[in-house]
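User: Structure please.
Assistant: Input sequence and predicted structure:
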Amino acid sequence: MRQLQCFFLSLTRIADLKDKPFEVGPFPRERWATGDYAMGEITSGHRPNIKLELCDGRMVEGMPGDRVVGALGKRCATLEGVGSWEDIGKDLSMHSMTAAGLLGKVTSISQYSPQPLPLRYIGHLTRNGGKLSMLDFAEPAEPRKLHTPVVLLVGTSMSSGKTMTGRVVIHELKRLGYSVAGAKLTGAGRYRDVLTFSDAGADHILDFVDTGLPSTIVEPEEYRKRLRQLLSRISALNADVLVAEAGASPLEPYNGAVAIDEIGDNICCRILCASDPYAVVGVQTAFDFRPDLVAGPAANTSAGIALVKKLTGVHALDITSTDSHAELAQMLRQKLEQ
């Protein structure tokens, strides 16, 4: 008989769950909260090829009866799915709403998106009768003001090319001789995104998971508190430059506007990754955000680049083409030396 697996998904990477014992059991519903660590069992509704992201970033595929450990959270992805732990009903059915183990009940999903992993709630992780939460494992940081210049990546939506653009930006900054910190400030926790920054050469990588948040859909003041902890940790690194990705767009409920407000004085270069040229106009108008450069699918062709220029007056680059990288590097150097 096959021995069933228990997968610790990447939202548990800040915790000691694989090294120290814990108990698992139902916990009073009125005491559930965002960030709680919980266990679910993969149900028979599981479809093949749904991948799970482990603490080291490796992707695996579970099978019905296997168990996963993740964290309760919320998601509001414009192009994929929407859901929350608050929507889990009395039947205790739920989903891993991301491969990283963001646990909740999906209430809306795009027909073009892969189906989420179906789970049955087994219980909360506890020690000595107290539930375990991501916040229990977030390392406190001595408050520091951020002085590091920031290259800010903002998107018109999810899947607008932010992470890919960040990878190229980091690569060029390293070629120029800078020490680089790469961080994801908002979004839903996936280790893959910041690991991509590391693969590009970033000397340090961090994200909001390090501060105890499974996603940044929380009250603005709670997010601001956690973000300041993250920025304090970044400041202590003394990197020459921070490449910071604000996942999704500033108008979505991931607190992108708060992130930009907190780092505003440090921003030396703003790159807007856009799904199409008209989306650039939308962000500029709705959020009063004027980028220094447009990248992403809006700039994938000469026609798109020309239309961005015509509509907004902003220069755009096809970052996917290595022919553009020398121009990108020159712009980054100029911005950092101003």
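The longest helix spans residues 220-237.
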